[in-house]
Predict the 3D structure of the following.
Amino acid sequence: MSSLYANTLSLLEKYALHPQKSLGQHFLIDSSVVTHLTRSAYLRSTHTVIEVGAGLGTLTKILAQNAQRVIAVEKSQQFIPVLATELAAFPNVEIVKGDILTFKPEQYNLSSYALVGAPPYYLTARLFRTFLQRTKVPPSSITLLIQKEVAEKIVQKPPHYSLFSVSVQLYGTPVLCGSVPPSSFLPQPSVVSEIITLTNITKPAINEDFFFSIIRAGFSSPRKQLATSLARSLNTKKSVAQNLLLECNIDPTRRPQTLTIQEWIALTRALSHNTSL
């Protein structure tokens, strides 16, 4: 029995807690994974970290030892007393009771921070959408432990792009950092996990809402030619869609998953200046 596993069982018993699988609660019990997750974030002593779902504070303690400031966001009230007690020795940790999806970095005077955590799997897409598209102050990097299958989709390249991979790679560069088996959690999930990091995060110089309306139109029928999907979604003639694509040096017969990020951006700009649509 590992020391982290034993400590987790001790904390659960001490505070009379039980993991709720319905809420996606799986506690890390492998210290090597906690260390690798932290190292994958490339933290420095000057960095600020926003932790997604602090839980029992296992990852929080390691983050606090590697960063200047840690804002540990936890939605579940049952964990707040645990965190307050177990993290009392870390003055650089601030515990925030709240929903990470409504967290506003600007209210904490943050101009730069890293987003790190092992969130419930079902939050993955909304987390990326919230912190890349919607927040006023996006993170400098994102390092998460998520479902391996989803992580692999995020890093895909043409001709295997998906709506999700384009949505994430518009903002930064994703890298897979290592697989994590179900045995590293309590209780064990039914899937293999993966540490993924997104770096070089920048806001694109385009109308983001319009960009996403275009890629949603393009991926509405991934197996069909792009001109066909765009014409139907934009309620225009196929010949018009074909000409727009040709103006961007894009073959109208291509499928959406073959376009690069730069080609999607070029298409977005061309469509935004087209007054006939």
